[in-house]
Input
Amino acid sequence: MLAISLLAVLSLPALSNNEGAQDADTSTVKDNQFLFPEKRHEAIGELVAQFIQRSHYNEVVVDDDLSSKALDFYVENLDRNRMYLLASDIEYFERYRYQLDDIVKSKPLDPVYEMFEVYQTRVRERLHFALAQLESEPNISSNEEYIFDRSEVPWATDPLELDEIWRQRVVNDTLSLALEDEPWEKNQEILSKRYKGFIKRLDQVNNDDVFERFMNMFAHAVDPHSSYLSPRNADEYKIAMSLSYVGIGATLQTEDDFVQIVNIIRGGPADFDGTLKRDDRITAVSQGPEGKFVDVIGWRLDDVVDLIRGPKESVVRLQVIPANAAPGSPKEIIELTRGAVKLEEQAAKSEIVKVPRGGRDWLIGVIEVPGFYRDYSALSRGDSDFTSVTTDVKRLIGELEEQGIDGLVVDMRGNGGGHLTEATALSGLFIDNGPIVQFRKSINVRRSPPQRLDDPDPVSRVSYSGPLAVLVDRFSASASEIFAGAIQDYARGIIIGQQTFGKGTVQNLYSLDQYFPNADEKGFGQLTLTIGKYYRVTGASTQHRGVHPDIELPSNIDTNIVGESARKNALPWDTIDTTRFSAGAPLGRTIESLTANHVERSKVDPNFQYQMDRIQAGKRIRGLKTVSLNINKRRAARVVELADALQRENERRVALNLEPLESLDDIVEDEIPDVQLEQAAKIVIDMAEIQEVSMRPAQTAQISP
Output
């Protein structure tokens, strides 16, 4: 699935499952005679197949097995929630299960467009049915249960079964709006526009859209990080990489009918505001503080981006369903002022956490590392004082030590990676010298033996040698996993938090225009292909498994949903030979002691227990597959959910001798505890205490004569 950074100059659209394009006022179903594979597409397919076979890390063969996987990926991409296609359609598609490899390599791509045509027709049928349902007010007081997650249920066997599914879908859509206490006439208008918009956008799909959709799934069938971008999206991607962006600072993708927040970009308006969160779903967009909200459920991603982006200093309002909220949960209104993403805000930052214990205040330094950045433009100009994460962290360590810190936490939560050179250099600040990571370009060891990547500055002294912990979560990926893995392998510090993402692969980007130098026009797009794999100095890959923490902390990030192991077709974990390196003394017993202290302390820590309760509530909501179609039951469930959340907050506050709240609206952002950082700081104090004890001179008993 493609994602898009939401910036004024950027849009990387991915087609949603419900894009539409014909005005629904017409009753006739438009045929798809204008959608067809172009000769250019056949040439691209052939070239992509060659790249996959020649350059992919796994030395993939484009054969029947890959064809079968590609068909499954394509069908899932078309109709992941099984709301449109019939079992007979899926059976019809089976004729192409072992033909897609041959089609991509050398034959016309007509079957790809034929399958899309079937999907397109089914979407129109469903949406016209939904519009017909709006002619009378649906019953929102029944005792029915609506299955909103249909990804694992059997395909509908006939149109009547889909009619029933969509009758309930319309009831649920109506009920969700009715929960906001709007009259039926207004909700009828909103839903009518929404369904007609689906149809309209469906007919705006062009030849490149269909081709990109299929070829992207064909690449995903190889591995989840290989992808294809159409010419338009390839150009937009290049603009994005220029880092000259203005907007709200968020990365979006389509998920079923919704546009979902994938990431909040450091230094952007959304980051400064702090209200918009990862996995929030946008339902409507408004221009200005008083503008009318435009419903965007089911829209194309690029169309939503066009609404959200705008001039600097202008206001946009987003109506969102919060992450992990059940269908029908209260929507939030978030007002953001568009502005430039401040790159300096993406730099490493430091703070000191003061923790009273044993009659003294312990000072724990915290360095937040949001990414592994390096200013290559300054470096290429010969500027020896170029900006880099390693330089910044080294400076921050010096500043913290001047303030007398007792220990250090390097916070890599949410760090998605960056430059490999910086990962090795940053590791070198804490490790005397030696290898940091191994890299292999092919699964064939004979053809591509592992390369060892060492500390790039082995002469320099270690910048910090005191008690050290690295704090990670499920969104810590790639370069941050290399760093955490090196710290763990060298026994230089301990890893605290959650199992990391598990992205241990490297990709290469191929601009395909250069391979067609004699073409009359450019427009071949770009291919991203996995061409290598990283391994720790122990020989273990970070791929798929990530880095396991020495001390695990609870998190509301669900590892069953987020992470490499949650992705279909991810490359597996494996090992190579250990390279020679000199680790410190084993930390096994120290970790056992630290863990025991942490467990006992957590039992009576109000903030920790509050976090545990929140996590359990989130798991319960994520586990829901159905929802009631009775508005009174839904309202009652909402009241209970809000009451439970308020009770959790007030139990925490009372335990901390704080005043309880009358409403969740009274919560002040600064009062929300960072439980993981609190726990990490306390564990580092334990490390400092152990170190103090070990450094005391031995006591000799005095025996009286």
